[in-house]
């Protein structure tokens, strides 16, 4: 295993590629303000250089876009201005919603990406659609995975549009205080991508192969400022809140009414660093997590949506791998287990985060959060601290080190000596070639906790090759039996895992099919503590066909072997007999999936599955239904039904998960969303209804109603009503 690690590490350090620049945007300096109204008739726009020649990304990546886009850029001492003309076949635009931070796929919109430090690793995105609905996002990890794209980031900027016959125009004003950049710099890297639903076309300013994600930072051009940029003068931002909460817990007949106050502060340090402070933060306005039917033996991770933890999150959360060993997972902070072993909310007293660019090649991250004690539930007060330092090497690769410390400073009778602290440190090398054909990772981690000295390490390696016609790679990791990261996500420990894969992609010409792909992907696990016994094996194979009309289907086969080291009851049924441990199970299953053209008013997905499940059988039907009355209303339904049929004495089960959702956008400032989640497995019917009024830039009034019922008898569990006011104040 060690020989493999070092061989692949050497391979990672020797791969480097270059990229030829073909385009360049000149950004002219002006000394007059521009009225942001979507009208490009002001004479000042005549002085700007026009840039175009967008390349098609879908359905082909080898020709110019049929419907072109023209971009002009200007700037003054405080603001970057964009004037954009977007041509179209007609005016039949698809605009599902008026809510900010909309999803870009399958509707008409355009996005602009700025790599302000020219590192090919991190970037800022601003986007809009024909009705002037805005979105912004942070791109991290080079944009090489969907994990590196976050719309939870918010910042102040302006954008307006005007619709004409067969085109629309955009005016954008992005304050230079909204982004970080190098003082005295004259060049940024830039790209833009556009979805055109009438032409069924996706296009990009810089040509990007279809096998790469459309926001990948390897494929960008240069924008050149007429004169060097000055110092970033980001103002101090104060974001206070007040929240009135009333709730009732029907299981213990307890009612509460309370007011909470707190807030955040944001301060720029130099041109590249952010200092964020939070006091008594409140996340009651954040959308609830989607319920998931988990029939495995292992925990699943859920995305971070809390604003304080989002900015520069890759500096803290990109160590290890997201599948099985991530030493820092911010969702751990603010949650704890009570004395019954149940996960409950743990109040955050406050915290600080320093993050950003030290220089062109160095990034720094420091996060420290203090959580409160809860003596009734035997939860200790903890300090949670993460330090990271990252150095760019080669064109887009980097090497980083980190230190994580969770520590209880106060003595508690219910805290054992082994639980007083947990520390993790390590080093990660992340490979991303200039053309993103080669990506990979090599990492070494080590944990420290009282009275543990052996088997407390973790290490892993990944190396992937991505081309248009053939993809292959291998990953592997070792996680010791005593390795522990209290602030991390560990799917399982005491394993050695390897995961090779190979994929062939076929691109037919002049057919209704855009591509075929065939993938073979085995997963193999061994347990070192069991004399390296092979406990898990999965051979995953898949055929996928993507059509020109943006629908797709796939067929998948799973051939599994699972050796249960302990008893396991998958149905979560009260009184059910668990499958016995120390037995191996061979089982095979199949899945089909079809996803319709989401450009249509009505769209759907359908995913049936069938086959063996341990010593029984499992049939599953899941999918989604979506209907829109654009741009005001979206109605959707997620559904999943699992039928488990097991031999006696084990229990059968019928597991239902139904999640209808209604989203109403009255205008670009007032939104109402309601999510209902029915799960008989969790014995819960949950209702989350949220009204948001954005009365000023990044300033909101929320009304949030939550209601939960037992499924068995429809008796109420818990009910709450929040009225939260938050205001963004620049000083």
What does this structure look like?
- By secondary structure, this protein is mainly β.
- The chain has a domain of 224 residues: Immunoglobulin-like (Sandwich), CATH 2.60.40.
- It is 2% helix and 52% strand.
- It is built from 2 helices and 42 strands.
- The strands form 4 sheets. The chain has a 24-stranded antiparallel β-barrel. Strands 1, 2, 3, 4, 5, 6, 7, 8, 9, 10, 11, 12 and 13 form a 13-stranded mixed β-sheet that branches. Strands 17-28 form a two-stranded antiparallel ribbon.
- Strand 39 and strand 40 form a beta hairpin.
- The longest helix has 13 residues.
- The radius of gyration is 26 Å and the shape is globular.
Features:
Immunoglobulin-like, 24-stranded antiparallel beta barrel, 13-stranded mixed beta sheet, 731 residues, mainly beta, globular
Kindly summarize this structure in a few lines:
By secondary structure, this protein is mainly β.
């Amino acid at each position: 295993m060690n020989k493999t690690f070092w061989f692949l590490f050497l391979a990672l350090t020797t791969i480097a590629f270059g990229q030829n620049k073909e385009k360049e945007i000149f950004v002219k300096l002006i000394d007059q303000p521009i009225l942001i109204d979507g009208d490009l008739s002001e004479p000042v726009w005549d002085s700007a250089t026009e840039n175009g020649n967008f390349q098609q990304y879908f359905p082909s990546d080898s020709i110019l876009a049929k419907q072109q886009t023209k971009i002009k850029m200007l700037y003054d001492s405080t603001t970057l201005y964009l004037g954009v003309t977007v041509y179209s076949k007609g005016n039949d635009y698809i605009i599902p919603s008026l809510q900010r931070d909309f999803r870009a796929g399958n509707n008409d919109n355009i996005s602009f990406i700025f790599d302000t430090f020219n590192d090919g690793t991190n970037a800022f995105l601003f986007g809009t659609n024909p009705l002037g609905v805005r979105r912004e996002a942070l791109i991290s990890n080079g944009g090489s995975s969907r994990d590196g794209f976050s719309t939870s980031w918010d910042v102040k900027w302006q954008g307006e549009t005007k619709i004409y016959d067969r085109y629309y125009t955009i005016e954008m004003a992005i304050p230079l205080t909204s982004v970080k950049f190098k003082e005295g710099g004259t060049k940024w890297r830039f790209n833009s991508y556009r979805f055109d639903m009438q032409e069924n076309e996706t296009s990009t300013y810089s040509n990007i192969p279809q096998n790469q994600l459309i926001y990948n930072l390897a494929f960008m051009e240069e924008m050149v400022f007429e004169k060097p940029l000055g110092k970033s003068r980001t103002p101090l931002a104060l974001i206070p809140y007040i929240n009135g909460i009333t709730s009732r817990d029907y299981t213990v007949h307890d009612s509460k009414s309370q007011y909470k106050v707190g807030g955040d502060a944001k301060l720029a340090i130099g041109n590249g660093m952010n200092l964020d402070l939070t006091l008594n933060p409140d996340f009651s306005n954040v959308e609830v997590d989607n319920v998931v039917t988990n029939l495995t033996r292992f925990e699943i991770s859920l995305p971070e949506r809390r604003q304080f933890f989002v900015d520069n999150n890759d500096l803290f959360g990109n160590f290890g791998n997201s599948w099985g060993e991530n030493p820092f997972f911010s969702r751990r902070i603010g949650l704890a287990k009570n004395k019954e072993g149940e996960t409950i909310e743990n109040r955050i007293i406050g915290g600080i985060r320093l993050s950003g660019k030290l220089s062109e090649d160095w990034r720094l991250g420091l996060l420290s959060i203090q959580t409160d004690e809860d003596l009734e539930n035997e939860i200790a007060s903890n300090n949670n601290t993460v330090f990271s330092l990252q150095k760019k090497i080669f064109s887009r690769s980097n090497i980083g080190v980190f230190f994580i410390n969770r520590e209880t400073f106060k003595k508690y009778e219910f805290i054992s000596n082994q639980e007083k602290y947990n520390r993790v440190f390590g080093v990660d090398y992340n490979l991303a070639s200039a053309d993103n054909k080669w990506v990979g990772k090599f990492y070494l981690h080590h944990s420290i906790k009282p009275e543990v000295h052996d088997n407390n390490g973790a290490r892993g390696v990944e190396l992937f090759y991505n081309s248009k016609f053939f993809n292959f790679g291998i990953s592997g990791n070792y996680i010791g039996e005593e390795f522990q990261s209290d602030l991390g996500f560990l799917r399982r420990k005491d394993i050695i895992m390897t995961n090779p894969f190979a994929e062939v992609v076929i691109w037919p010409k002049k057919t209704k099919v855009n591509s075929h792909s065939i993938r073979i992907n085995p997963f193999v696990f061994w347990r070192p503590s069991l004399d390296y016994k092979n406990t898990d094996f999965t051979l995953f194979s898949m055929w996928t066909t993507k059509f020109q009309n943006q629908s797709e289907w796939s067929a998948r086969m799973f051939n599994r072997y699972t050796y249960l080291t302990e008893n396991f009851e998958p149905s979560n049924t009260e009184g059910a007999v668990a499958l016995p441990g120390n037995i191996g199970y061979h089982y095979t299953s199949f899945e089909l999936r079809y996803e319709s053209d989401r450009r249509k008013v009505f769209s759907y997905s359908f995913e049936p599955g069938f086959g063996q499940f341990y010593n029984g059988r499992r049939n599953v039907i899941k999918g989604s239904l979506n209907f829109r009355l654009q741009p005001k209303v979206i109605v959707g339904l997620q559904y999943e039904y699992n039928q488990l049929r097991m031999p006696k004495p084990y229990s059968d089960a019928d597991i239902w998960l139904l999640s209808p959702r209604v989203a109403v956008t009255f205008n670009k400032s007032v939104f109402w969303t309601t999510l209902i989640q029915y799960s008989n497995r969790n014995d819960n019917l949950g209702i989350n209804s949220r009204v948001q009024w954005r009365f000023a830039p990044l300033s909101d009034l929320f009304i949030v109603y939550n209601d939960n019922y037992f499924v068995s008898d429809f008796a109420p569990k818990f009910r709450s009503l929040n009225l939260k006011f938050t205001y963004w104040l620049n000083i």
